[in-house]
Amino acid sequence: MELNYSLNTASSSAVDECAPARERRSANRQVSVMLTAKLETSGRQQPCRILNISSKGANIESLISLKVGQPIEIEFRSNLKSKGTIRWIRDAQAGVEFNEAIDLNEIWKRSEVSIKRIKPRPPRYCCFAPAMVEHGEKRLQCQIIDISASGMRVVDVKNMVLGATVMIEPSGLPRHRAKVVWCNKESAGLKLVNPFKYHELEMWLLQQESSHFRDGTC
């Protein structure tokens, strides 16, 4: 498989030639997956799909135009990130070599609450987009300042009730039912009952980025 060859070639120099053969095979072993993550590079942030991964690198798919040699960072969740370099590009896919080997077991295991009672979250994306919140007969204008596939943080909204179920309609996205998981005087955290679809959020974030560049807010 050509993908494996590309990634292994990029990472082979990082593997100690004196290491046991079993360790070298483990370091370069590819695992076909279909994970979603956050890709950050050159001040941009977009979702990406991870199609294939090893401890040394990954094959990703993203709408961001990338270049060979470009530094990137992949965020799997809030407590798990990895920096790397683009080694090859083919259409919307790219091969990434990680700067440091990662532990694949950390990728597979479920997110658990830490000793500090903080549960790792899915990647969040900074934005500034108008939305409408419906709670009973009330319709409130607000702004979304960060968003993920499973929730968002809204500001400029008052009198939200902790634990309440609301309808949230971001401009450009379908209405979703959500629960208020935290709130204060003028902001709230909403968790979606059903998460956004991958392509739905991907295209929306791209449109948000384009509009910010056009109006000079980014």
UniProtKB/TrEMBL annotation:
Protein name as catalogued: PilZ domain-containing protein
Domain PilZ: 23-104, 123-192
Gene3D superfamilies associated with the record: predicted glycosyltransferase like domains
InterPro entries in the cross-refs: PilZ_domain
Source organism of this protein record: Sphingorhabdus lacus
Highest taxon, organism lineage: Bacteria
GO MF term list: cyclic-di-GMP binding
